[in-house]
Amino acid sequence: MPTYRQCLKQAQKQMQNAGLSEQSATLLMLELANMDSQNLYMDYEKEMPSELEESFNEAFPRLLSGEPLQHILGFEWFYGYRFKVNEDVLIPRPETEELVANILAAYDEHFADKENVMVCDIGTGSGAIAISLKKEEPKLNVMATDISERALAVAGENAKINEAQVAFCCGDMVEPLIERQLHFDILISNPPYIPNDEELEHSVKDFEPHVALFGGDDGLKFYRIIFERSKLILNEKSMLAFEIGYNQKEALMAEAAKYFPDSKIEVLKDMNGKNRMLFIYNHCD
């Protein structure tokens, strides 16, 4: 049997030759072995158990092909919670955790005293945002929409796994909420915002759902739809929160001002100093 070191060194060399991240091989080993980095280092020169070697050798070719590690494992961690992911949903990204944190901070500032705060997550995908918010602030009444029934099936499973009470409905953006004549205090969306002609990495383009990635010629198509239609479902005092592309600040602030001329509009930076979150406050002063 090979040692952990021998197996990993060979895998890392293959990843390097393929132009892929060597760290992914280590992360795959850690997850399959149910180890942390310190334990792996302590066992580095020990022989791998035969079952682990078999599992690694079965999974590694998929990693070497460029398939996302999260699809191979079948899950991703987000905001401390475990979420099932597959080809039907976008893999939750770390920067979206910052959106959740800022939404919770804004809730505390503007809505904490309200008894029944209604929240909707538009284009929920895996349900990561909606479920994390419900787990962190159980008082919130959370509803989430998606146009994909397959995505909603994954989101529903994630709600059960994480024991979060979130209502899901299938439909195009805010339309199912309009049809139900519902009204909300907080609207959230991480919509598709990549321009149609932008080149993507192989692991994203070939393994993640395009319906969750591309946002029209300039990437702003779905923001405009939400800006225009959201007034039919928002309470007078309300807040909208979006994830945005790092280079979309000026264009989106201009678009938002057309639809919300009297509202406070701000863009927040992520921990890397990039403009990644758009917040709109209606009568929140």
Automatic annotation (TrEMBL):
GO terms for biological process: methylation. It comes from the Bacteria. It catalyses: L-glutaminyl-[peptide chain release factor] + S-adenosyl-L-methionine = N(5)-methyl-L-glutaminyl-[peptide chain release factor] + S-adenosyl-L-homocysteine + H(+). Residues 109-196 form the Methyltransferase small domain. InterPro entries: DNA_methylase_N6_adenine_CS (IPR002052), HemK-like (IPR004556), N5-glutamine_MTase (IPR050320), PrmC_N (IPR040758), RF_methyltr_PrmC (IPR019874), SAM-dependent_MTases_sf (IPR029063), Small_mtfrase_dom (IPR007848). GO terms for molecular function: nucleic acid binding; peptide chain release factor N(5)-glutamine methyltransferase activity. Gene3D superfamilies: DNA helicase RuvA subunit, C-terminal domain, Vaccinia Virus protein VP39. Substrate binds at N190, P191, P192, Y193. It is an enzyme of class 2 (transferase). S-adenosyl-L-methionine binds at G123, T124, G125, S126, G127, D146, N190. Residues 6-74 form the Release factor glutamine methyltransferase N-terminal domain. Keywords: Methyltransferase, S-adenosyl-L-methionine, Transferase. Its EC number is 2.1.1.297. Methylates the class 1 translation termination release factors RF1/PrfA and RF2/PrfB on the glutamine residue of the universally conserved GGQ motif. Belongs to the protein N5-glutamine methyltransferase family. PrmC subfamily. This is Release factor glutamine methyltransferase. The lineage of its organism: Bacteria, Bacillati, Bacillota, Erysipelotrichia, Erysipelotrichales. The gene is prmC.
